[in-house]
Amino acid sequence: MNGAGPVGYRRLVKPTRGVARALPAAVLALMLLAAPAASPVQAQDRTRAVGGEVPVRVVSYNIHAGIGSDGVFDLDRQAAALRALRADVIGLQEVDVRWGDRSRWLDTAHELGRRLGMRVSFAPIYRIGGREFGVAVLSGHPVLAAENHRITRLSTQTADSAPAPTPTPAPAPAPAPGFGEVALRVRGAPLRLYVTHLDHRADPSVRATQVAEMRQIMRRGSGPKVLLGDLNAPPSAPELAPLWRDMTDADPRASTYPARKPVKRIDYIAVSAGVGVRGAHVAETLASDHRPVVADLRLRH
Predict the structure, then answer these.
(1) What is the pLDDT of residues 85-130, one digit of tens each?
(2) How many CB atoms lie within 10 A of CB 228?
(3) In a domain, 22, yes or no
(4) In contact, 197 and 2? CB cutoff 8 Å
(5) Distance of alpha carbon 59 from alpha carbon 61, whole angstroms
């Protein structure tokens, strides 16, 4: 449950040999890292397309900067929890990249990618000096292109919230980055995947604006789409209603937050036309303060 930062909408940039082209930070604020040749996910890629459909397992997980429900930072524990889910693609929220002491100044996105043998695309919401915080995609399949889109945010970087060396005294809603998009190829099938983290406040007005802007951005993309994210609202929330006109909720029929005794579902996997949902569930783990959502999908190829 967090907020916003700098960088905007540009055309998707194609990576070269698995690594993003060198572009100015103002044009592209995503960092791509090619996975090692022998990815555990790729090694278990034994399921082939059947009847024109391609299977793909996706996960959405708010990792709470690597901190579990016990308040202890433990990336090995989170990597083990994710590995057990045997996912093709993972969308992460609350990801620290050398952010501070709470995550031992580690690049948690790439550390998890290294442990899982997966490619990494990180989209910062905040960038303060060399410190970054945002969302990420881990993929066991080729990343063709990546983008960090701007949507309206109300910054959490205030004196009484997330740590920042120069707090903003009175934040106001403004465009900021952190709506990540990646174009993937999964067993020969194209997939456009988005990862997001919406405003956490009780007032739904910022979330309503964010939903409208995300819908506009996603409409620009073609082909099958999957949205992964912490939307900070229940499925019936009025501000989410417009989203369900375009996407189908892969309902796991279980709560996701807080992880120890979940009482509400605020974490989602949603799919567009062209993507079938074979099943979904919420994994039981205390590696974060949220539980991950898992969905088995079929891409029509």
Answers:
(1) 999 999 999 999 999 999 999 999 999 999 999 999 999 999 999 9
(2) 28
(3) no
(4) yes
(5) 6
The CA distances from residue 205 to 202, 209, 210, in Å, are 9, 6, 9
Q: Exposure string (b/e) for 257-283, b if CB count within 10 Å is 16 or more?
A: bebeebeebbbbbbbbebbbbeebbbb
Q: Report how many domains make up the chain.
A: 1
46-79 tens-digit pLDDT: 345 556 899 999 999 999 999 999 999 999 999 9
CB 283 within 8 A of CB 235: no
**Number of other residues whose CB lies within 10 A of the CB of residue 34:** 14
Residues 24-47 pLDDT 10s: 433 333 333 333 333 333 333 434
Domain with residue 76: its CATH number is 3.60.10.10
pTM of the model: 0.83
Residue 4 within any structural domain of the chain: no
- Rounded CA-CA distance 160/22 in Å is 36
If one counts every other C-beta atom within 10 angstroms of the C-beta of residue 178, the result is 27
Task: For residue 110, give both structure tokens.
Answer: 């790439």
CB-based burial, 62-76: b 16+ in 10 Å, e otherwise: bbbbbbbbeeebebe
The boundaries of the domain holding residue 198 are: 31-300
130 within some domain? yes
